[in-house]
């Protein structure tokens, strides 16, 4: 069988990234939008680890861990914003969040 | 030491990851999306293992699939109750019990005494040394970021600000 190279991992990561971007742009539910953002972060993480394997160092893996920390912070703050917003407006649809638009 | 059937597992795991991603953005129900995202996260953790990054794979499973996704599912089912699916739950926990008991009874035969020598067994040690050496400043910044995120979440979810 064929050998699996770094290129194969890059293709998978690109597919995940595109799926995440489609989710962010098309879905109306804020929760699904946040989950799509996590899909994008995972694609970037896969790229980082694949390149780290390719160059033989560990810097990519350490950076992937920092990205996971960012994702955790984003999930916590996203939950807070979502609950505060739901309490005020009774909706979690993105296109109804238009308080800044007159 | 060559890995066994690498292309097969690569295509299986990447197919599962992409399938989960498609399900995340196509399901109407947000809970279904969250469960599909867990499938994707676990498949990507398997890909990390194939890239000889066991520590990142463990972080992915524990932090992502265990922590962040619990937060996600909690915020999607906040107003909704689960249906009565206790037969399914009973069957699943019964299967888990059978698995645990069988491993407990003949575990000695299943797992050899000494583990196989891994090509990069000191991965976690190296990452720890880098986190506390090269990346000390970034590590402290990350902890500060987490602290601010916790404070922000607590303050924003309070009833009266």
Topology:
The complex is a heterodimer of chains A (102) and B (161).
Chain A lengths: L5 H21 L3 H26 L3 H31 L13
Helix pairs in contact in A: 1-2, 2-3
Chain B lengths: L5 H21 L3 H21 L3 H23 L9 H20 L1 H4 L12 H10 L3 H21 L5
Helix pairs in contact in B: 1-2, 2-3
| H-E order of chain A | HHH
What's the number of extended β-strand segments of chain B? Answer: 0
What count of helical segments of chain A does DSSP give? 3
| Biggest interface, residues from each chain | A-B, 54 and 58 residues
**Cα Rg of chain A:** 17 Å
Strand content of chain A: under 5%
Which range best describes the helical content of chain B: under 10%, 10-25%, 25-40%, 40-55%, 55-70% or over 70%? Answer: over 70%
Oligomer: heterodimer
Rounded to the nearest angstrom, the distance between the terminal CA atoms of chain B is: 60 Å
Q: Mean pLDDT across all residues of chain A, rounded?
A: 87
For the largest beta-sheet of chain A, the strand count, sense and barrel status come to: none
Report how far the terminal alpha carbons of chain A are from each other: 61 Å
Principal-axes shape call of chain A: elongated
Helix proportion of residues of chain A, in percent?
Answer: over 70%
Can you identify the CATH superfamily of the largest domain in chain B? NADH-ubiquinone/plastoquinone oxidoreductase chain 6, subunit NuoJ
The helix/strand series of chain B, from N terminus to C terminus, equals HHHHHHH
Low-confidence stretches of chain B: none
Structural class of chain B: mainly alpha
